[in-house]
Amino acid sequence: MAPTTATVAEEAKVASIKTLTDAGAELNSVPSEYTYVKDPNDQADASDPEHSIPTIDFAHLTSSSPDLRSKAIEKLGKACEEWGFFQVINHGVPESLMKSMIEACHKFFQLPEEEKKEFQSRKLLEPIKCGTSFNVAIDKVRLWRDYLKVIAHPEFHSLHKPAEYSDVSLEFSKQTRQVATELLSGISESLGLEAEYIAKAMNWDRGLQILAANYYPACPQPDLAIGIPPHTDHGLVTLLIQNDMGGLEVQHNGKWVLVDCAPGAFVVNIGDQMQILTNDKYKSVWHRAVVNNRATRISIAVPHGPALETAALPIPELLGGEAPKYIGMSYEAFMELQASPAAYMMPCLDHLRVKADN
């Protein structure tokens, strides 16, 4: 994350969540530094079928049939406007590749701590970095997760261990980027724009793609800990996969919804840059990762953003006489803001929102 006064050596003293939970029977409760106070009335509702994220059929979105594609684009726009989250089926990425990617990341987290130390870094855009919690230099409560972040575009980077990670991540990053590109085109068209409008405006060919793996081991008291607290994503669109253990919750109409997606589907959400572009028409929605006491959850989020030097601004064609609600900031600066104490667990968009004249 962004540089702070803490040194890497000091941060390294903070045990990974894997090290903590490997204590086994000795860990019967959540340590005080990991205790996260939740609102007892803020529980997810998984029973109401109306509280299920929309489903987008990728085969329809890319169909040669104008009717099928038109309906899919309309459904995509509605999902972006009403939910900010949806699942994508029939996307063409082999489920075997998705499982191999999860397994490769799991093997990385299983490496001895000494072998992972070379990847510990405080630099925001370090090509390969791993760590624990969110930012141990500023965390008020430590999170029940370890992470691995690898930049896959515009330049592909890879781990040399575990051995299979490189080939699997290369293919996975290529195929997820293809899906994200088609989704971006569909989103552009859902807004009444040319298919390539957003891609061109955001310099998509040089856009940032990160493979961000999260490791959430079983927790003895899941109600007293959090994997990742409520937050929004900084990019344009994020694609996510997970193993058989769910834990993603999305805020919808003031309630938390536990996401239950189809096997092999991507969960996709709109990021902050897209909310800026659409002047709040498509919103970057609050979501969080909860933990369980049964088994380890592995998730891999793949955020896709603009080129680092590119600043998102409300698209003029979408304003319809309305004033722009946001000022510009380069994507790199926006990411630095999100990682700083000034925006710790706060909506970063508030820092860019145009203040109303008194």
UniProtKB/TrEMBL annotation:
| InterPro entries per the UniProt record, alphabetical | DIOX_N, IPNS-like_FE2OG_OXY, IPNS-like_sf, Oxoglu/Fe-dep_dioxygenase_dom, Plant_2OG-oxidoreductases
Q: What is its EC number?
A: 1.14.11.9
Q: Which UniProt keywords apply?
A: Dioxygenase, Iron, Metal-binding, Oxidoreductase, Vitamin C
Among Pfam families, the record links this protein to: 2OG-FeII_Oxy, DIOX_N
For this UniProt entry, the molecular function terms from Gene Ontology, in alphabetical order, are:
flavanone 3-dioxygenase activity; L-ascorbic acid binding; metal ion binding
Which segments constitute the Fe2OG dioxygenase domain?
Answer: 206-306
Q: Known SUPFAM superfamilies for this protein?
A: Clavaminate synthase-like
Q: What class of enzyme is it?
A: oxidoreductase
Q: Which PROSITE patterns does the record associate with it?
A: FE2OG_OXY
Q: Which family does it belong to?
A: Belongs to the iron/ascorbate-dependent oxidoreductase family.
What PANTHER family does this protein map onto? OXOGLUTARATE/IRON-DEPENDENT DIOXYGENASE
Q: What is this protein called?
A: Putative flavanone 3-dioxygenase
Which organism is this protein's natural source? Rosa chinensis
